[in-house]
C-alpha cells in the first residue's frame, strides 16, 4: 500500500478515535475500555489471512495461534462488555417495596 | 450486467465494517446508546470474519481456521459467562492480551515468510511489522501479568534495585535486534530472540505495578494492542484493521489519560513510581496496634447522635448489593437531622463509575455524592466516616508509608474523621494484599459482617432509639 495514503488513514483514524470518545462520562470508562477491547478483536481477520496463506509447519502453527488468540479477544471482549453494560443498566429497585415492612 | 466479484465484495464488506465499528464506538460513549453501539460493533465483527473466508489471499487451511475460531470462541464465551461480575477487570486484561498476542503472531508469520523468501516486503513494511510485533508482544505478556495479579495468582510486586535501568536495557536490546532484523533480514534465531525479549519487556514493566493501578495499566495495554492491530492492517493491506486498530489505539490512549487523571496521578507515576524504592515485602509488613471491633448497636448510636456522617462505599458494598439498605439508612439518619454525604473514590469498586451507578440505582440523589477533591477537606469536621467494604482507597499508607506499593495514590482521608467505622467481611487484606493502616488507628472501629446485613442491623439499631 502507498505509504502516504496509509499515513493519512492512520492520522484520520487517530483523530476519529479521540473525537468519538472525548466527552465520555467517567461512569462509562470501564465499559468503553471493554468495548474498544472487543473492537481490536478485529485482529482475528488478520490472523485468518495469514493462516490462509501459511505453508510451512511453523507458519501454520503460529498462524493458528494468531486466529485462536484473535477469536478469543473478539468473543470474550464482546461477552464481557455485554455483561458489564447489563449491570450498568438501572433496573427499577425491587427492594424499595418491602422497605416499610422491616 | 455482471455481478460484482469478490475483489469488490471483500473490500466493500471491510469498509462497511469499519464504518460500523466507528459508529458503534461512538454509541458506547453515552450511557443511553451504549448497548446499541455494542450491537453495531458486533455485527461489524461478524461481517468482517465471514467475508475473510473468501479473501483473495486466503488459499487454504480452512479446517484449521474453523477449529481455531470455534474452540477459542467457545472457551472465551464460556469463561466470560461464568466469571463473577467482580472479576471483570482481569477478564478485560486477559482478552486484551490475546489480541496483542494475535497481532504479534501475525507479525511472526509475515517475518517467517520474508525469511523463506515467499514474500518480499518493502523495508518500511518490515519496520512497521516489527514495531507491531514489539507492541503486540508487550501488550500480550503485560496483560497476562495484569490478569495474574488481579486474579490473585501473583500477589507480590516484584522489585529489585536498578530495575528501571534493567528494563530499559531489555527494551533497548529488543529494539537492537529489531534493527538487526531490518538490516540483515529475519532468521528464525533472530526472530525467537526478538519475540522473547519483547515478551520479557512486557513482563518486567508490569510486575512492579500495584493492584490499585491496574485499571489504568490495562487501559494502556488496550491502547497498545489497538496500535499493534492497526500496524498489522498496514502490513496485510486491510484498511479495516488499520482503522479499527488506530481508532481504538487513539481512544484508548485518551481513556488511559482520563483514568489516570481521575486518579489524580500522572501516567508516568503509575508506570514508574514503584521502581527502585523499597524492599520486596513492603506489602506484607505487619502494622502496629490492633484492630478494635464494635457491634452494630454501638455503631448505630454513634451515627444517630452524630452531626455529620460521610459514607465511603467500596467493592464490599457492590458484592453485598447493600446500596438499597445504605440509602434507607441514609434517609433514616437524615430524618434525625444528621447531615449525610457520600464520598466516592475514582477507582472505588475496581471499576471507575461502578459506585455511582449502584447508588443511582438505589435512588441516592446526585447532590449527596462527592468526588475525592470535593470532600477530603471535610473529613476533619466529620463525626463518623462509615467505610463500607472499601480498602486500598482509604489506606493512609498511601500518604504515610513511602515503602508501600500504593504510596502517592490519592485516598479519601477517612482517618482524619473523629470516628471511623469500617464495615468489612473478614480480617484479611484487600485484593492488592496491602495491610491497611486505617484498621489499626485509634479512632477506627471494625464492624464485621456482610454489608447488607450490617446495614440492616444499623437501621434496626437506630429505629430502636426511637
What would your notes on this structure say?
With 102 residues, chain A is mainly alpha-helical. Chain A starts with a helix and ends in a 14-residue tail after the last helix. Chain A is flat, with a radius of gyration of 21 Å. Chain A contains four helices and no strands. Chain B is of the alpha/beta class. Chain B is 59% helix and 7% strand. Chain B has helices at 6-28, 34-52, 62-82, 88-115, 123-151, 163-184, 188-206, 214-236, 239-262, 267-272, 296-304, 315-320, 323-335, 354-362, 372-375, 397-400, 451-464, and strands spanning 308-313, 339-344, 369-371, 384-388, 419-424, 444-448. A six-stranded parallel sheet of chain B has the order 3-2-1-4-5-6. In chain B, α14 links the parallel β2 (339-344) and β3. The interface between A and B is large, with 85 and 118 residues.
Entry keywords:
heterodimer; A: 102 residues; mainly alpha; disordered C terminus; B: 466 residues; alpha/beta; 17 helices; 6 strands
What is this structure's SSE topology?
The complex is a heterodimer of chains A (102) and B (466).
Chain A (H helix, E strand, L loop, with lengths): L2 H19 L7 H11 L3 H11 L3 H32 L14
Helix pairs in contact in A: 2-4, 3-4
Chain B lengths: L5 H23 L5 H19 L9 H21 L5 H28 L7 H29 L11 H22 L3 H19 L7 H23 L2 H24 L4 H6 L23 H9 L3 E6 L1 H6 L2 H13 L3 E6 L9 H9 L6 E3 H4 L8 E5 L8 H4 L18 E6 L19 E5 L2 H14 L2
Parallel strand pairs in B: 1-2, 1-4, 2-3, 4-5, 5-6
Q: How much is the average pLDDT of chain B?
A: 86
Global geometry of chain B: elongated
Radius of gyration of chain B, Cα only, in angstroms? 26 Å
Helix/strand order of chain B: HHHHHHHHHHHEHHEHEHEHEEH
Largest sheet of chain B: 6 strands, parallel
Can you count the helices of chain B?
A: 17
Number of helices of chain A: 4
Radius of gyration of chain A using CA atoms only: 21 Å
Poorly predicted ranges of chain A: 90-102
Strand fraction of chain A equals under 5%
Structural class of the secondary elements of chain A?
mainly alpha
Helix content range of the residues of chain A, please?
A: over 70%
Greatest contact between two chains: A-B, 85 and 118 residues
Quaternary state, please? heterodimer
Span of the ends, CA to CA of chain A: 70 Å
Major β-sheet strand ordering of chain B: 3-2-1-4-5-6
Tell me the span between the first and last alpha carbons of chain B.
87 Å
User: How many β-strand stretches of chain A?
Assistant: 0
Which band does the percent of strand residues of chain B land in? 5-15%
Amino acid at each position: 500500500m502507498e505509504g502516504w495514503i496509509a499515513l493519512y488513514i492512520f492520522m484520520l483514524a487517530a483523530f476519529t478515535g479521540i473525537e468519538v470518545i472525548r466527552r465520555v462520562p467517567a461512569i462509562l470508562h470501564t465499559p468503553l475500555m471493554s468495548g474498544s477491547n472487543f473492537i481490536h478483536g478485529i485482529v482475528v481477520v488478520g490472523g485468518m489471512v495469514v493462516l490462509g496463506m501459511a505453508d510451512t509447519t511453523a507458519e501454520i502453527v503460529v498462524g493458528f495461534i494468531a486466529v485462536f488468540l484473535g477469536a478469543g479477544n473478539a468473543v470474550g471482549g464482546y461477552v464481557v462488555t455485554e455483561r458489564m453494560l447489563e449491570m450498568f443498566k438501572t433496573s427499577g429497585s425491587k427492594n424499595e417495596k418491602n422497605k416499610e415492612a422491616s | 450486467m455482471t455481478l460484482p466479484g469478490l475483489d469488490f465484495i471483500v473490500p466493500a464488506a471491510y469498509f462497511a465494517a469499519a464504518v460500523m465499528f466507528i459508529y458503534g464506538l461512538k454509541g458506547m460513549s453515552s450511557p443511553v446508546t451504549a448497548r446499541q453501539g455494542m450491537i453495531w460493533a458486533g455485527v461489524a465483527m461478524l461481517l468482517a470474519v465471514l467475508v475473510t473466508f473468501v479473501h483473495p489471499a486466503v488459499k487454504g487451511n480452512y479446517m484449521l481456521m474453523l477449529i481455531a475460531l470455534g474452540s477459542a470462541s467457545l472457551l472465551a464465551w464460556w469463561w466470560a459467562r461464568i466469571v463473577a461480575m467482580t472479576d471483570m477487570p482481569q477478564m478485560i486484561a486477559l482478552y486484551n492480551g490475546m489480541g496483542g498476542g494475535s497481532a504479534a503472531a501475525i507479525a511472526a508469520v509475515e517475518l517467517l515468510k520474508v525469511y523463506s523468501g515467499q514474500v518480499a516486503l518493502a523495508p518500511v513494511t518490515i519496520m512497521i511489522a516489527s514495531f507491531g510485533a514489539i507492541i503486540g508482544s508487550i501488550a500480550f505478556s503485560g496483560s497476562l501479568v495484569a490478569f495474574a495479579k488481579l486474579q490473585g495468582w501473583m500477589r507480590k510486586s516484584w522489585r529489585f534495585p536498578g530495575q528501571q535501568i534493567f528494563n530499559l536495557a531489555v527494551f533497548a536490546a529488543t529494539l537492537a535486534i529489531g534493527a538487526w532484523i531490518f538490516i540483515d533480514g529475519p532468521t528464525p534465531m533472530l526472530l525467537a530472540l526478538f519475540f522473547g525479549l519483547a515478551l520479557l519487556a512486557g513482563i518486567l514493566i508490569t510486575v512492579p505495578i500495584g493492584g490499585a493501578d491496574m485499571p489504568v495499566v490495562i487501559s494502556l495495554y488496550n491502547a497498545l494492542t489497538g496500535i499493534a492491530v492497526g500496524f498489522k492492517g498496514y502490513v496485510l493491506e486491510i484498511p479495516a484493521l488499520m482503522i479499527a486498530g488506530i481508532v481504538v489505539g487513539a481512544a484508548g490512549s485518551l481513556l488511559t489519560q482520563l483514568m489516570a487523571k481521575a486518579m489524580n496521578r500522572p501516567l508516568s507515576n503509575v508506570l514508574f513510581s514503584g521502581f527502585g524504592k523499597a524492599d520486596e515485602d513492603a506489602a506484607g509488613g505487619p502494622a502496629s496496634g490492633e484492630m478494635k471491633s464494635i457491634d452494630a448497636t454501638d455503631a448505630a448510636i454513634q451515627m444517630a447522635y452524630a452531626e455529620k456522617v460521610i459514607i465511603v462505599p467500596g467493592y464490599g458494598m457492590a458484592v453485598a448489593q447493600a446500596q438499597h439498605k445504605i440509602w434507607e439508612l441514609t434517609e433514616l439518619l437524615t430524618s434525625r437531622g444528621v447531615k449525610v454525604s457520600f464520598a466516592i473514590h475514582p477507582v472505588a469498586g475496581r471499576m471507575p463509575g461502578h459506585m455511582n451507578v449502584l447508588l443511582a440505582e438505589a435512588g441516592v440523589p446526585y447532590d449527596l455524592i462527592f468526588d475525592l477533591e470535593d470532600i477530603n477537606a471535610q473529613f476533619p469536621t466529620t463525626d463518623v466516616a462509615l467505610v463500607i467494604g472499601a480498602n486500598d482507597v482509604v489506606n493512609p499508607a498511601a500518604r504515610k508509608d513511602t515503602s508501600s506499593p500504593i504510596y502517592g495514590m490519592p485516598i479519601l482521608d477517612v482517618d482524619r474523621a473523629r470516628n471511623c467505622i469500617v464495615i468489612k467481611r473478614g480480617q484479611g487484606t484487600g485484593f492488592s494484599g496491602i495491610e491497611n493502616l486505617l484498621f489499626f488507628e485509634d479512632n477506627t472501629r471494625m464492624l464485621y459482617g456482610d454489608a447488607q446485613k450490617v446495614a440492616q442491623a444499623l437501621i434496626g439499631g437506630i429505629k430502636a432509639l426511637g
